[in-house]
Design brief:
four-stranded antiparallel β-sheet; Pdz3 Domain; 16% helix; globular; 114 residues
Length: 114
């Protein structure tokens, strides 16, 4: 299996933060890059993940390839954030599907962050 990571793309406003937090005070949780296999983007992975960040607290690890959130394809970090916020606004727990160390895994996303 060969993974190609495209150029680093920084998304400073995309943080897995509580919707009631002041985003200007929210740290950049991760620097995300697209991951390409056979010429197709298969997900996005954090190449930097700050210790204690919201993503880390939710169970994400550096280089997890985020494929979907709540069963819907997360074709960009913005889409993943949109799906996560939608799930939280509904007051329900959700899931994120990631590829970690070559294996697909599920991360449970709580209805309310801790």
């Amino acid at each position: 299996m060969r993974l190609i990571i495209l150029s680093l793309i920084v998304f400073p406003t995309l943080s897995f933060a509580d919707s009631n937090e002041d985003l200007s005070k929210t740290l950049n949780d991760a620097k995300m890059v697209p991951v390409v296999r056979n010429g197709q983007v298969v997900g996005h992975a954090p190449v930097e993940l700050k210790k204690g960040s919201k993503m880390e607290k939710l169970g994400f690890k550096k280089m997890d390839i985020v494929k979907s959130v709540n069963g819907e394809e997360a074709e960009s970090p913005a889409k993943a954030m949109e799906l996560y916020n939608k799930q939280r606004a509904g007051g329900q727990a959700g899931t994120a599907t990631v590829i970690r160390d070559g294996k697909e895994q599920t991360i449970v996303l709580p209805a309310k962050s801790e």
